[in-house]
Amino acid sequence: MSKAVRLDVMMFLQFFVWGAFFVPMTSYLQQIFAGEENLNTIIGDVYSTQTWAAIFAPIIVGFVADRLFNKEIINGVLQIAGAAMLWWCSTIVDSPTQFYWVMMAFFLCYMPTLALVNAITFQNVDSIENDFPKIRLWGTIGWIVSGLVVSQSMFGLFPIPVLPGVEDAGSTNLPLRLSAVVGLIYGIYCFTLPKSPPQGRDNPVSIGKVLGLDAVRLFRNPSYLVFAVCSFLICIPLAFYYARTYDFVEKMAFGSDSAGVMALGQVSEIFFMALVPFFLARLGVKWMLLVGMLAWALRYALFGLMPSNSAMLVLGIVLHGICYDFFFVTGQLYTDRIAPKEIRTSAQALLGLLTYGAGMLVGNLIHGPWGDYIHLDPTTSEGWAAGAAEFWLMPAGLALGVSVLFFATFWDKSSAAKGNNAVAADSTTA
């Protein structure tokens, strides 16, 4: 098996493990903790474990993987330990607190591996610019396939019975166990990956650099400060989508096909990823970012105002390509171009800390109590129909407010924010 194929398989398994259980987990939590008064808060707390772990993950990667052990070995050990945690979670049915802490243990194992697989790839390809996007694409494919397997349907269009005798798998512990088994296999497979020894043994240890804090100096640029603040703020409503969309569309329209239907979001992501250079050249950074933010507001408005319209729910899911690619991918490109070469890695780490770390953490700590405050009953279609407007229009308003703030205050006229120059810069580095 060639090195490239081995890395493709690594990426596929990496995101299959995450996608298989993470998307439908809300539905399962409702089944096992249905009698709890603060059910929505429990759901929000469990999903916050991923964001807490995202904040601490860089320390593990930045110190252990860069200085002590081969990256493929660390990845293998963490995947096997994570698989054990997921299996343990699948056995917990009467203690939200225990489920929370075991899930926290899983994500403390898993989140560092997201950076590890990138580092392993970077260390074993001839051209990062040319080879990495092709390999990373297999991660998105892995997430899509996991949704099709759990839903046993081809995007909800027709059945694919890959789990004989199992119905509505998303509402059971099967996704957790599926991820655990695949995670164990993946962990063992990691020991066969290309050798990726530490590359920073001689460098001084700096927690600030690991967390990207040495890139804080970018905030001296008023435009980048606005971008950073808005990136943090837009990820607060983002958390609502990842944690609550599955059980919403499950109850309102798609039932056991929901994981397959939601995989359309990743298909859209692949499609719009290919269009980013085209739109970036014509719109520039400001309008790309703004369109991405407004897409979040539109998605939640569709969910809140037309919860019983399955076509509008699908449209909201398919908007994921614009929501993610136009904002996050464009933001990463903008960060890479605005940052001096010596702190580009730190700048990306800081951006990740602000978005998938702090921003989504706040969002996960908000959507649960918000659901309980409005007395949302997420266990029935009637409950969701009655509470959809109040629940979803709140993040829609947040996203719209951030969009207005960004439009009014972001005025970067540098070449990094201009579409034609940005694309030209990309082509020269490739």
TrEMBL record:
It comes from the Bacteria. It is found in: Cell membrane. PROSITE patterns: MFS. Keywords: Cell membrane, Membrane, Transmembrane, Transmembrane helix, Transport. The keyword Transmembrane applies. It is a multi-pass membrane protein. This is Nucleoside transporter YegT. It comes from Stieleria magnilauensis. The lineage of its organism: Bacteria, Pseudomonadati, Planctomycetota, Planctomycetia, Pirellulales.
